[in-house]
Amino acid sequence: DRTVLDFRRIVVSNVALAERPLSALGLGPRVGAIVTRVRRGDVELLPSAGMHLELGDAVRVVAPRERIAELGVFFGDSQRALAEIDVISFSLGIGLGLVLGHVPIPLPGGGSFSLGFAGGPLVVGLVLGRIGRTGPLVWNLPHAASMTLRQVGLVLFLAGVGTRSGWAFSEALREGGVLGIIGLGALVTVSVAWMTLLVGHRLLRLPASVLVGVIAGIQTQPADLAFANERTRNEVPSSGYAAVYPIATIAKIVLAQLLLGR
Questions:
Q1: 208-218 and 222-232 helices cross at what angle (nearest 10)?
Q2: Are 236 and 206 contacting, i.e. CB atoms less than 8 angstroms apart?
Q3: Does residue 162 belong to any structural domain of this protein?
């Protein structure tokens, strides 16, 4: 009877609830409410006592009708708040990533390498994303803000690559002999992709959506990841990408140092 009990979708925008487990909210004893569904992005999740809420989650709450408005205030339910970014935590994470990217890591034989502007922030982002929260600082961005930054970052990345490589590529075409190099590069790229698919599917039994993210991570190509996310219509490829990208980045840097050392 909805005159007694009612349900409502409420967006989590209260920073105090971010990265808190559902069991710590005390909804049952406090207002006699229960969370029956959590929608994160485009994915419906079944809630559990240990599930940690993230900013931007849409929770479906069943509660006494007269307490629904109170729950809206408790969770925040503000789209405007989700569009804002915590400048302190965001800047601190980027700064730590840039510092880590400049730290020289020694190699056997006297050489060294650094993670650079890409690897450093990525490693720090993975660590802080796993931590989730440090005191008042919430490291995970709201879903909408995160997607916007991803798209802007991808556009800037592709623009930078095109600006730096376009002129050199046209000059190489004029000089000739570059078609063979392009063919070899394509052959290596396709071979690595097929080997990854074969090993991942046959031996590791990974889902196809995860495998395409792994391929993008091995090739360290965020454009491939964006295409995979668009085709699968979810963010499952991102998990495969994040798992292998740091290793692939470090491996490429180390191999380049070893080849140059020879």
A1: 170
A2: no
A3: no
Look at strands 5-11 and 133-134 and give their pairing: unpaired
Domain that holds residue 47: 5-82
Does an H or E element contain 198, and which? helix 178-198
Domain boundary among 28, 52, 82: 82
**Structure tokens, 131:** 């931590």
pLDDT of residue 61: 92
Tens digit of each residue's pLDDT (9 = 90 or more) over 96-116: 999 998 888 777 766 677 777
State the total domains in the chain: 2
DSSP codes, 114-128 = --HHHHHHHHHHHHH
pLDDT beneath 50: ranges in the chain: 262
Q: Number of helices (H) and strands (E) in the chain: give both, helices first.
A: 10, 8
Question: Which H or E run contains 201?
Answer: none
Task: Give the integer Cα–Cα distance in Å for 126 and 99.
Answer: 15
Which pLDDT belongs to residue 155? 83
Query: Which of 48, 82, 116 lies at the terminal end of a domain, its last residue?
Result: 82
Q: What is the pTM of this model?
A: 0.68
pLDDT tens profile 226-255: 888 888 877 788 888 878 887 887 787 677
Six token digits for residue 152: 């802007």
Determine the length of the chain. 262
Crossing angle (nearest 10°) for helices 222-232 and 236-261:
160
